[in-house]
Amino acid sequence: METGNQISELATAGNGKFLCVLGAGESGVGAAFLARKQGFKVFVSDFGQMNEKYKQQLQDWNIDFEENQHSEEIILQADEVVKSPGIPEKAPIVKKLKAKGIPVISEIEFAGRYTKAKMICITGSNGKTTTASLTYHLLKKAGLNVGLAGNIGKSFAYQVAAEKYDHFVLEISSFMLDDMYQFKADIAVLLNITPDHLDRYEYKMDNYADSKFRIIQNQTGADYLIYCADDEETVKGINKRKITAKKLPFSIQKKVEQGAYLSDDEIFILTDKGDLNMYINELALQGKHNIYNSMASGITAKVLELRNETIRESMGDFKNIEHRLEHAGNIAGISFINDSKATNVNSTWYALESMNTDVVLILGGVDKGNDYTMLKELVKQKVKAIVCLGKDNKRIHEAFEDDVEMIVNTFSAAEAVQMAYHLAKKGDTVLLSPACASFDLFKNYEDRGRQFKAAVKEL
After folding, report:
1. How large is the average pLDDT for residues 441-445?
2. In the chain, where are the structural domains located?
3. 413: which DSSP letter?
4. Where does ATP bind (predicted)?
5. Confidence class for position 369, pLDDT limits 50, 70, 90
6. In sequence order, what are the beta bridge partners of 120?
7. How far is 231 from 190, CA to CA, in rounded Å?
C-alpha cells in the first residue's frame, strides 16, 4: 500500500478516469479488478480491517488501497465511486460524495456496463439464495454458459473481467438495488416482500418495497417479470406501477393464465415459450416455500426454452445450499437442522412451517427490530422449547413466554446444541433458525452454522 502524497497523485496522474471503491470485501475487490482491467485509475478504501486474502489480491494486481480509514482528500476527487452494499447511505463519506455530486453506484451497476450476457436477476426478502442456486443449476445442467454472482459466490465484477459468460444468474439484495440506475434485468424475479432491514429504510415498509421494485427499472416489452401472486406487498406494488415487461405470476392459491400454479400436488408452468407440469413429490426441495422457489426457477427455465426432461431432472437432483434448512445429523432419533441463514422472522416462519415433528427451536442474535408476532401461532403448534443463542435475549422471552413451557439462554453454539439435545426426545427436531443476525457471537451466519454443525458432531 502506498501512503501520503503518492496516493493523492492517483487522482491527478494520467488521463484515465479515477474510480474509488468503498469497502474491500468480495464485491469491492472484484470491482477494483474490473476497473483496473478497463483502464481506470483505482483506489480501494475500507473503514475497517481488511481480510488478508483481499489485501494480497490487490497487491498482486498493483492496486492501491487503505484500511481502517477513509482518506477524504483522495476519495472526494473520484470521478465515480463503487460502494459496498453494506455501507449505509447515511455514512459520512457517502453523504459528502452525494453533496459533491460524485456518482455512487453498486458493483452490479458498474460490472453490468462491461458484459452483454443475459441477466436473470433474483430478489426478495426470502428464498433468494435457494432460487438463484436452483436456477443456476437448471441452466448449467442444460448446457448454457452461465455464471452465478451477486450476493452469492465470486463477485459479478470479477467474473465479468475474468470470464465470458452468455448468461448470469444474480442474487440481488435491496442494498445493491439502491445503487443501481442503468442496469437492466432481462428476467427479473421478485419472490416476496416482507419486513427486513427496515432500519435502513426509515422503518417504512413502502421505502423497502420501492427498493425491491428497482429490479424492474429499465425493463422493456421484450423482458420478463416473474413474481409471487400470493404475496400481498408484491401485488400491491405491481398494481400501482406501469410495468412494460411480460408478467408471469406464480401461485399456490389460484390458477393463472400465464406463469405457474399448483393444482392437486401438481405444478403447471405456462409461458409463451412452452409449458411444463410436474408433481411436487418429484422436487428435491420440499416445503411450501420451496414450491414457490421451484416455480420461479421453472418459469425462468421455460422462458429460456430449456427442455422439459432437463428441467424435471434438475429440479429432482438439486442439493440445497449450506445453512438453509440443511440436515446436520441425527443423534438418538433426534434430527438437527441448520437454518443459520434465517436472519429474519419471515425466514424462521418458513422453516417452522415446513416442520412436521415437535421442535426445539434455537433463536436469537442481533435483533433488527424484529416483530415476532407472526411466529406465535406456529410456535404454539410446533415448538416445545426455545433455546436462545445471543447476548441479549430479552425480547424473545417477552414474545414467547406464554407460548412455550421452557425458554433458556445460551451463549455459544456448543452450549445451545447441548441444551437443545437434552430438551428434545426421539422423533423431535432441533432447528437452528435464529431470525436474527449473528454478529454478537459469530463472524457471520456461515460461522454460526458451521459451529452448530461441529457441535452436533461432538454429541
Report:
1. 94
2. 16-105, 109-317, 326-458
3. H
4. 124-130
5. confident
6. 169, 187
7. 10
- CA separation for the pair 221, 211 (Å, rounded): 22
Question: Would you say 388 and 398 are in contact if contact means Cβ atoms under 8 Å apart?
Answer: no
Rounded Cα distance between 148 and 133, Å, is 8
pLDDT single digits (tens) 394-408:
999 999 999 999 999
Is residue 171 a contact partner of residue 152, using CB atoms and an 8 Å limit?
Answer: yes
215: closest CA among 252, 244, 249, 178?
Answer: 178
Range with the lowest mean pLDDT among 17-26, 92-101, 316-325, 399-408?
316-325
Helices (H) and strands (E) in the chain, counts: 18, 20
Q: Which amino acids are annotated as binding site, given as ranges?
A: 124-130
Write down the CATH number for the domain with range 326-458: 3.90.190.20
Grade residue 14 by pLDDT with cuts at 50, 70 and 90. Answer: very low
Please report, in range form, the residues annotated as the binding site for ATP: 124-130
What's the whole-number mean pLDDT along residues 379-396? 95
Q: How far apart are CA 23 and CA 46, in angstroms?
A: 5
- H or E element at residue 227: strand 224-228
The DSSP secondary-structure symbol of 322 reads T
CATH architecture for residues 16-105: 3-Layer(aba) Sandwich (3.40)
What percentage of the chain reaches a pLDDT higher than 90? 80
Q: Write the CB contacts of 422 (distance below 8 Å, at least 6 apart in sequence).
A: none
> What torsion do the CA atoms of 433, 436, 442, 446 make, to the nearest 10 degrees?
50
Q: What percent of the chain has pLDDT over 70?
A: 95
Domains 16-105 and 326-458 belong to one CATH topology: no
DSSP structure class, residue 245: S
Handedness of CA 199, 205, 211, 212 (dihedral sign): positive
What value does the mean pLDDT take over residues 302-331?
91
Reduced to 3 states (helix: H, G, I; strand: E, B; else coil), residue 315 is: helix
The residue that leads in pLDDT, 355 or 268, is 268
Q: What is the C-alpha separation between 109 and 106, in angstroms, rounded?
A: 5
Mention every residue, 6+ apart, whose C-beta is less than 8 A from residue 34.
110, 111, 114, 157, 158, 160, 161
Across the range 130-157, mean pLDDT stands at 95
Q: How far apart are the first and last CA of the chain?
A: 47
Q: Residue 31 belongs to what H/E stretch?
A: helix 26-37
What is the architecture of the domain spanning 109-317? 3-Layer(aba) Sandwich (3.40)
| Least-confidence region, from 130-139, 192-201, 428-437 | 192-201
